[in-house]
Design a protein that fits this description.
The strands form 2 sheets. The chain has a 3-stranded antiparallel sheet. The chain has 109 residues and is α+β, with helices and mostly antiparallel strands. Strand 3 and strand 4 form a beta hairpin. The N and C termini lie far apart (70 Å). Helix 1 packs antiparallel against helix 3. The longest helix has 16 residues. The chain has a single domain, classed as 2-Layer Sandwich (Hypothetical Cytosolic Protein, Chain: A). The protein binds zinc ion (ZN). Zinc ion binds next to loops.
């Protein structure tokens, strides 16, 4: 066993635990694929009757997918079928149109 060097310097064990970021649960945007905290995102919600709407509050019941609060990501999710993958169902064009409209309306409030 080589004990050389154990007497010089001290280990900075007291730093343990300091500066560790608090763990924030991250969600992945189905548009751009970026990981962000829930409060920076909006949910796209699939309710029990399979209708799809936006949930800005994150409090509605149902299966949700997350998107950045950005029209770009909404359009990207449409293009890359991120929502389809999340919900395991095909999503008609008019649903995307409705989501985009809902988002645009929600923005101006
Ligand atoms: Zn995004």
């Amino acid at each position: 066993m080589n004990l050389r060097g154990t007497s010089k310097g001290r280990f900075e064990t007291e730093r343990h635990g300091i500066g560790m970021a608090k763990k924030i649960p991250l969600r992945q945007c189905v548009g751009c694929g970026e990981m962000k905290s829930k409060k920076e995102m909006m949910r796209v919600l699939k309710s029990e009757d399979s209708s799809i709407c936006l949930d800005f509050t994150g409090k509605k019941n149902g299966r949700g997918a997350y998107l950045c609060k950005s029209m770009t990501c909404l359009k990207q999710a449409r293009k890359n079928k991120g929502l389809e993958r999340s919900f395991k169902m095909s999503i008609p064009e008019q649903v995307y149109d409705a989501l985009e409209k809902e988002f645009a309306d929600g923005e101006t409030e």
